[in-house]
Design brief:
The chain is α/β, with parallel strands linked by helices. Strands 3-2-1-4-5-6-7 form a seven-stranded parallel sheet, with helices on both faces. The radius of gyration is 18 Å and the shape is globular.
């Protein structure tokens, strides 16, 4: 059900790859709520995905951009404002990548060139996006910037590997840059810590299927879906959350506050 929460608002969505990605589903929901946007992803990701289908469905344009390149980001933001007809009201950063994870390299045996690449793509890109927006004065007052994260930034999930470090850095950037964006521009910056979600990227983590079942048993409300995350993001992009900033907001069915659940304990009880 749409409520026109984003009527007249415009923005940029980073990271939509295919219909399994949270950014894709969020784009659909933003469109339903009256928002307009530009879609962007790295050129190689655009070749691998089906983003043109999403663009057609949401009457959007696609601009290829490497989020680790300040020059690409500057061009992206300038073109987006030209296409959309003014400054931006929202930005979604839904980007994450670990070469170590992809190639099965253990956390205790990292290839540091790969580690640096993953850090740049997953976390430093968020700083670069915000710095470019900030210097360009590209955000409208009371605009909202959201990045997606995971609670491995706070707790140990061994197979999440160096992505845990990337997410911890991402969350710190959100708080630190969010202060300056709030103080100087009245712009909000938050992260959403989402349940494990069967996206294309998420399924690349070793043991993902087992962990998503475990999280489902641990969470009183069950795992939050990609659509749940999209809906939560809509509220943060709307005018209903104008004073919410510098927060890492859990959208995980209660998992983050659980020690153990009855369902999990039953797995260890003797017959």
């Amino acid at each position: 059900m749409a409520h026109n929460l984003l009527e007249g608002k415009r923005g940029i969505i980073f990271g939509a790859l295919d219909e399994n990605s949270i950014a894709w589903i969020t784009a659909e929901r933003i469109h339903e709520e009256g928002g307009t946007f530009v879609l962007t992803n790295a050129p190689i990701a655009l070749r691998m995905g089906q983003i043109d289908q999403l663009a057609a469905k949401t009457a959007s344009q696609v601009i290829p951009a490497d989020a680790t390149s300040v020059d690409d980001l500057q061009s992206l933001i300038e073109k987006s404002m030209e296409i959309l007809g003014g400054k931006l009201d929202f930005v979604l950063h839904s980007i994450g990548m670990s070469v170590n994870v992809r190639k099965g390299r253990a956390y205790t045996d990292q290839n540091y060139d790969w580690t640096q690449k993953g850090l740049d793509v997953s976390a430093m890109s968020f700083h670069k996006v915000m710095q470019t927006l900030y210097k360009s004065d590209a955000m409208n007052e009371w605009g909202s910037i959201v990045a997606l994260t995971y609670m491995a930034a706070q707790r140990v999930f061994p197979d999440y590997n160096d992505m845990a470090d990337n997410k911890a850095f991402l969350e710190s950037i959100a708080r630190s840059f969010g202060y300056f964006f709030g103080r100087d521009k009245n712009v909000r910056v938050n992260t959403i810590s989402q349940s494990p979600t069967p996206t294309t990227a998420g399924q690349g983590v070793k043991g993902f299927d087992g962990f998503i079942k475990y999280a489902e048993k641990m969470s009183p409300l069950g795992n939050a879906t990609a659509l749940d995350c999209a809906n939560y993001t809509i509220t943060l992009f709307s005018d209903l959350t104008r004073r919410v900033t510098l927060q890492n907001l859990y959208n995980d069915g209660g998992f983050s506050n659980m020690g153990v659940s009855d369902s999990v304990m039953e797995e260890f009880l003797d017959d």
